[in-house]
Predict the 3D structure of the following.
Amino acid sequence: MGNNQKINCTVCSCEFHEGEKNQCNLEQITVKPYPDCNTQNPDESVCGSYKCCFTDEEE
Ligand code: SF4
């Protein structure tokens, strides 16, 4: 990343998670609201770039 920003992440079920560093190895991610922007709770913000590491095949 050009500005040396890091994405720290502990979601170990994601394909992009680096276990030893607890970091994301993507250059950038997209954060999405779930289920929408009206809950006003912290968990409405989720990683939209998540990809499960347990599925080998694309649909
Ligand atoms: S894509 Fe999202 S969930 Fe996956 S390692 Fe990166 S920040 Fe974490």
User: Anything to note?
Assistant: The chain has no helices and four strands. Residues 1-54 form one domain. The first strand starts at residue 17 and ends at 18. The radius of gyration is 13 Å.
